[in-house]
């Protein structure tokens, strides 16, 4: 499967479910704000020159070669009471959206990016904030995470890897720097993404994305 354009990755922004007006009251009245943005930006490799900037921030749509890829299968975040199953997901070919698991209590690892064993790059995990039919999602409280909070990602090899939050950022969905968050280079890090900001009842989606960056502890 190939990610054809930036809009496909913006699926992280769009692909987190149809939501209710009640959700706006529950979430958007507590803006996440931004902390640690400068520290998060230093984790990425230096930006390429304009002439070499690729048209999309991801590699070809096929699973990385080799037997050492270790997908995350479970995520534990004690500070916000998250214990969630992680599923390997890609891009929905029909909608061109990031294919977050339909069950809001589960979350999705972008399987065309790095696994937990990677010594460089961003391991991306996205999840629903909530749903009109299922209620609160696994990442309903993601906006509450702060610098220094810890989380544990367990891989398919059974090893639990601890991470420390260094940044929490909020972007309008049209402004999120996807090339940074889906990068295969730079320092190893875990990137958690969900919806946030005001809820557009007519479009049935949130305006923003909440992005949490964590590094190996």
UniProtKB/TrEMBL annotation:
Keyword presence, Lyase: no
Annotated protein name in UniProt: Sortase family protein
Keywords, alphabetical: Hydrolase, Signal
InterPro entries, per the entry: Sortase, Sortase_dom-sf, Sortase_F
Coiled-coil residue spans: none
Signal sequence interval, chain numbering: 1-28
Keyword Amino-acid biosynthesis tagged: no
Pfam families (UniProt xref): Sortase (PF04203)
